[in-house]
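The following record pairs a protein chain with its ligand, nicotinamide-adenine-dinucleotide.
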Amino acid sequence: MTHRFLVTGAAGFIGSHLSETLIRSGHEVTGVDNFDPFYARDVKERNLAGLRTLPGFRFVEADVARDPMPLDGVEAVIHLAAKAGVRPSLEDPGAYMDANVTATARLIDAVRRAGLTRIVFGSSSSVYGNATPAPFAEDQPAVLPISPYAASKRAGELLAHAFAHLYPLKIICLRFFTVYGPRQRPDLAIHKFTDLIARGRPVQMHGDGSSERDYTYITDCLDGILAALDWTAAAAPGTVETVNLGGGERVRLDRLIALIARALGQDARIEHHPDQPGDVRLTDADLVHAGRVLGFKPRVGIEEGIRKFVDWYEEVHGRQSRASRRAG
Ligand SMILES: NC(=O)c1ccc[n+]([C@@H]2O[C@H](COP(=O)([O-])OP(=O)(O)OC[C@H]3O[C@@H](n4cnc5c(N)ncnc54)[C@H](O)[C@@H]3O)[C@@H](O)[C@H]2O)c1
């Protein structure tokens, strides 16, 4: 059966992939995005280019924090619009609260006023902070965030709890663990490092390389979101659920850089820098609950995922000789 879904943040990395996947599965999508200047509009327009040609996709340029949402005919909402990124949230915390907290409150309120019930909310592993024992399980308190971004995502989850208590909503908060793949946000480490190594430029490594992240390949993340949408169809009214979506492996920063360099056939030149304030030392998803609630199991390991990412990068940027990269 064909449904129409509202995807907020549809011009972004995850939102554009999700919109395509939904349409290819026979559904229709209304995509909303305000082209937040966190990264270039051109990049987001490229993310949308294929989508705009697909029948069933409708795009509305709007700000979730202040504009009315196009909820006509919508069956469920996947709320991915946000100011993403930990470090920039230290520069402009107020804007993060606006885009991530006020927008989430307004959106959930609009959904319930429209008589809709199903919401998937894109949360983040950053809510676990530095004080949660690994692997991070959803029943840990997650009350000690260490950046405004993390606090804003936890606030979004708490709003979900409040609204599901007040109204017959079915909301699932997905804690994404560093998602990567084609079109990954240019500010994220894998994309940034690939770009630097490909151009023969030094990579700024913060810390001694021993920090670890759980990386999730985009197709695994999409499988988790689709399963979460199914959860919202079946859940009882007034229910909220929180689920980790991770890649199932802890990858050290120095190993990540080595994997990227190997996939590019280059050497990585590393510049050492101190730890970045606001960055957590470790992320590590406990996926037991995700398996139980969503049947979620990541399929793409880090080596395969990095090879796929680098293939995409080289397709977009062209494969240059090492000498011309260094010159460029
Ligand atoms: N990519 C990751 O590794 C990761 C990890 C954890 C959580 N998340 C969360 O997943 C979601 C998607 O992340 P992404 O990597 O695709 O980021 P992204 O920046 O590529 O996409 C987010 C989109 O939201 C839009 N947006 C921002 N504020 C808006 C507003 N007020 N109104 C309308 N649109 C707005 C932006 O223009 C952008 O296109 C975000 O909520 C992010 O916080 C992502």
